[in-house]
Amino acid sequence: MLVIPGNPGIAAFYKDFVEALYESLRGQASITAIGHISHSQKDSENGRLFSLHEQIDHKVDFIEQELQHSEQSIVLVGHSIGAYIGLEVFKRLQNKIKMFVGLYPFLKLNKNSVTQSAIGYIARSSFLSKGISLFASFIGSLQPSITRGIVRRFLGHSWSVAAVDVACCHLLKYHTMRNVLFMAMTEFQKLTEEPDWTFVRAKEDKIAFLFGVDDHWGPLSHLEEISKRAPGVTLSVETEGHTHGYCCNEPGSFWVADYIANLIKNRSFIRNN
């Protein structure tokens, strides 16, 4: 099983979720969370910025290299923009993908979202993107206790201690924030287009989506459109009060892990005993 994160694409945010999913599946599946290029603590790419398309290529290359000598197919799990990435990977590697699950999916722009409009405005401006990235790196350079306090106050009221630490170590870096915003810019350019409904209909028996009740990235109007365009897709709505950033706290991670485990067991991919 391969987990593709949203944006920021920091795999460490999904640690509790991956561990909970492994437990829910009774250790019968190998699970890997793959981060986006240059969304990490170390600037291994020397400041290079990566687009949405390049992040998709990165996931395809990873799967082809890891499974080049394996006949075993995989279950793809994508969160937020990771759901869009996962569908694109599925299109390119159809013989290797057994099932795709999109969590709180960001598949196209929501014109009614003020948050998306604001992020899009910032991401399109090189000046603003650099300024915010510099400010983030400054916060990250403070004493760890001060940085954690700021992150918890402004970003992570409900976040777990582990998620706050991940943000401090990986997100508050100049190169990471620049890549987060550059990727967001390319997302917003691409997601003005409609999803590939022809492909979704063709593979509807292998696709499932989980939506939230109040999620501007994946509003319920998008769920309704999927149900009309591809009625065979498995659609669910989480009503337990978790958020789009479910992976940043333990209750959300545990609930979504159970959802996926039950989905997989019901399709007899894993022994249910």
What descriptive keywords fit this protein?
Rossmann fold; globular; 11 helices; alpha/beta; 273 residues; 50% helix
Write a compact overview of the structure shown.
This protein is an alpha/beta fold and 273 residues long. It is built from eleven helices and six strands.
Sequence-ordered SSE layout with sheet pairings:
Layout: E1 2-4, H1 15-24, E2 32-33, H2 52-66, E3 74-79, H3 81-92, E4 97-103, H4 114-124, H5 126-141, H6 144-154, H7 161-171, H8 174-190, H9 197-202, E5 207-212, H10 220-229, E6 234-238, H11 250-266
Parallel strand pairs: 1-2, 1-3, 3-4, 4-5, 5-6
Helix pairs in contact: 1-11, 2-3, 4-8, 5-8, 6-7
Walkthrough of the structure:
- The protein is an alpha/beta fold and 273 residues long.
- The chain has one domain: Alpha/Beta hydrolase fold, catalytic domain (Rossmann fold), CATH 3.40.50.1820.
- It has helices spanning 15-24, 52-66, 81-92, 114-124, 126-141, 144-154, 161-171, 174-190, 197-202, 220-229, 250-266; strands at 2-4, 32-33, 74-79, 97-103, 207-212, 234-238.
- Helix 3 (81-92) links the parallel strand 3 and strand 4 (97-103).
- Helix 1 runs parallel beside helix 11 (250-266), helix 4 crosses helix 8 and helix 6 (144-154) packs across helix 7 (161-171).
- The mean pLDDT is 94.
